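pinning this so it doesn't scroll away 📌
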Amino acid sequence: MTDVTRMTATAIAAAIASGETSAVDVARAHLDRIAAVDDRVHAFLHVDTEGALAAAGKVDAARAAGEPLGPLAGVPVAVKDVVTTKGVPSTAGSKILEGWKPPYDATIVSRMKDAGLVILGKTNMDEFAMGSSTEWSAYGPTFNPWDLTRIPGGSGGGSSAALAAYEAPLAIGTDTGGSIRQPGAVTGTVGAKPTYGGTSRYGLIAFSSSLDTPGPCARSVEDAALLHAVIAGHDPRDSTSIPAAVPDVVGAARLGATGDLSGVRLGVVREFAGEGAEPGVMAVFRESLEALVKLGAEVVEVSCPHFQYALPAYYLIAPSECSSNLARFDGVRYGLRVGDDGNRALEEVMSVTREAGFGPEVKRRIMIGTYALSSGYYDAYYGQAQKVRTLISRDFAAAFERVDVLVSPTTPFVAFELGSRTADPYQMYLADLFTIPSNLYGGPAISVPAGLSAGLPVGLQVMAPTLADDRMYRVAAALETAVPPLTPPAL
């Protein structure tokens, strides 16, 4: 049998269903792979060996008893450490939550468990999902399996690196400004941001409540769609959850895999052309467009004039919401508590705890957000940014009257070297230049491997209207048929 760690989730599920292998053997193979390579990759913050083997054993027992099982039963999955898992450490990559074991599962975790997926552990991330390189984790950076001197993207670099290193066939990420798609692009994997509200935020440690979106990460488009179908759907415990049917993302991915895009109109955003993407990235993007045209698609240039303001608007809205959300970490209710020697006032304990518990990027965003929300500045900063957000949404609406989806490079550049941008926040923020507009709009977007530049992966981004997640899966799966698989160097 082929090395199970190199198989897609779809193939693993089929092998378990046919009796060719067992869920326990699959889990052991991936746990062994983690033990063999993760000291170099550092994709995981916590590996739940006992829990994974117990869950796999339940799947095997259920299958032996003839019980009906879901299409991903027995398939391992890695979970970004910003998603709560009952009794398993959930730190959000921060010292302020070091060792915290939640008393409940996030909705998406419950749904994966109910579907028979086997959770391997929690993946590394930029602290509280604030970053584009996973260098802002309080527990050290993750390394890109394509080149261990380079970043794996962020904030969910641990999830994407686990996939690229064959430590897991599936992973969960969260996308606030590109934190699923950008890591997918620079590691040669697939990352999908569902429509905002299409996946539950219940149990997600909040960064920016109007933007945070959990979603699937995988090594193939069909695998991502299968995981999307498991975790999506209305959740009454999330006030922003959409009470609508989940689009047939799996059927759309399989339709796209036939390689037929006849009648599909692709929009290329004129304003993105001058945004300074590397020549190698743009070359791969042009080749991708040519491949999609050969499959029957039509390419149309569209104008989205307000996209150029997405980055500054995002870096007012997200820090403002972060300032509000992170106020709960005060050293009183749960998490880290420093300086309580019985002689200090409560306010001083809070201050000392936050100084010790939050990292530099989190502090930077809290200060920006607190300032933007302060008396006399709210309308000038946060209020204006929300107006820009409305204009960006109108740009999307106008574009989708002419085309079915929008396409762009996922990131302006390939994976950069570790340490090369940590001293310059603006250069770091540029990693999300092409991904942020979809978050501000709320529509779905996916990154799919499109080729190599200088030997490193480049992603193509497909953006669709809200609740039209199936469209992006169809186009992404079609491109997948036209692009040779990207295989990272052996670790």
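📌 and the second one:
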Amino acid sequence: MNQNTPMASDVPFDIAANIDAAAWSGWQKAVILLVASAIILDGFDNQLLGFVVPVLIREWGTTRAALAPVFALGYAGMVIGAAGGGLVGDRFGRRPALIASVLLFGAATGLTVLAGTVPQLALLRAVAGLGLGAAMPNAATLLAEYAPRRRRSLAVTLGIVCIPLGGVGGGFVAAALLPAYGWQSLFLIGGILPALVALLLWRLLPESPQYLADRPARRAELIAILQRIGLRADGDTSFAAPLAPARTGLGGLFTPPLRMDTCLLWTAFFACLLITYMVFSWAPTLLSDAGLSIAQASLGVATFNIGGVVGAIAAALLIPAYGSRRVMLAMAAGGVLMALGLAAADGAIPAGTLLALLAIEGAFINAVQTSLYALASHIYAARQRATGVGAASGFGRNGAIISSFVGAAVLAGGWSAYFLTLAAGMAITLMALALIARHAPAERRA
């Protein structure tokens, strides 16, 4: 094992500083892959309802307007789950909070196969939303705290890119199973997979070393983790107490040094998640109304997510070189321009060209959306990181709630109204990002 950073016995061991200075070990990367497995399921589960809406409208004899509250209640659960999950993660640990959230949304999704009415469906999606919302802040925090600072944006963004990656899987699974096995097959898979991943996390996922830093009763666990990372620590090591913010909890996010960036970050999350979930929830219906088959409409959302994976990876690689400000502003501006172009086309686009354009738009939107988690992890210190990420994500999910009704309304206005709404949301995101002060710097200037 590579023993990095020897420390004198009279010098307190700063866990965060030593992880930042050490090599990014293979074991740390394996931890990030474990966390990523939960995020993939988040992306898969989040989009299931959007895929089945056209089928439910036909089989249940319902309408888009009647199903809009189902989306809204699911996203309302995410708002509560994200804010509460961050607080739980900072208080009781990122590991148990993440495992519990995966079990919760998996159980609710699996039980959805028994739903036979819109109210039953809405209740189960609300419960699933609690788990989905709680998973993200704890996953993002673990990603940030198992990577050295110079690789933090890369680690978080590559982890969060698993959201559109899960959507890609959902699109292909929906295209394959919906015509032959019905909508229940998707929710059955969405219930089984989280149970398996939760078991894997329970067996293999370690706790955050920065969370363990000021918990003396778990000192042996902390030392074992640091040794796995490759740091020299033993029973005689004296650990430095993590730097505490002036205030903890939600109030600590609004102290004078953080207040403006918190408000702007929340605005960016809100606007970006509004349009992201407009695509997840209503794009299959838009494409179906435009004449595509159910399978083609599902593939349309899959291509949006494929583009999102490519865009998010590109952002993850560019941010360390150029800083988050330049990269995120460029991606947001690209999203605005592409949405305006799609609106101008007014649906008169061949199917193959449409799929390619949706992939490009997905690249821009998802690059910004995934990078927001990395930006939030950079803005907030360790003791309030899960709370900060969770609060920003939770407030952003209000945009997802509103997207349930905005999406249903703009569909009535047709193709151009839909994409003009996407352009407006990305423009608001662009302005908020431009005003944030604490962007992650480029590596060469860090």
